[in-house]
Design a protein that fits this description.
20% strand, Alpha-Beta Plaits
Length: 189
Amino acid sequence: MPWGLERHQDSGDLHFVTFSCYRRLPYLNSGRAKRRVEAALESARCQYGMPVFGYVVMPEHVHLLVAEPLRGELATAIQSLKQSVARRLISGGAHFWQRRYYDFNVCSETKRVEKLRYMHRNPVKRGFVEKPEDWEWSSFCHYATGCVSPVELESPWTEMKRRRAGIRFLMKRISGQTFGVLSADVERH
């Protein structure tokens, strides 16, 4: 691990993660690029069993609010997500992402809400839209209306949907938040 970088994982906390495009260039400016990030996030969520609580894709960076993966390390899941996006959006040896990512442990409900609000308001603060619901590439609309998101989110809406569908989940608590884990996923470990 690089000098001075300290990661606190296996803590049961949520993680507010930020990673940026190389030299903060707007490589994610197109809708196609932002959708690619959403698809890669959903893939990483499934592959690593990484509960996602929120996200926003900006033109030159991404914010995530996630729990620690059930399979593998958070760093490995983030690396997989970043590699998947870079492979599909650039060719050759060009740099796409900054090498490291920022990781803040979210250990309270107050901080969880603060980080979700920060993410969802980011496009408004930057002047891209007037209201958070106008930014297509975030989890805001799911939280506001329960609409289906390209990334399955751990939220009261998702929990209600799972109950209605009769899907059997084990409930797991992380950082004061309860989320469902498919019984089959847990039994494999």
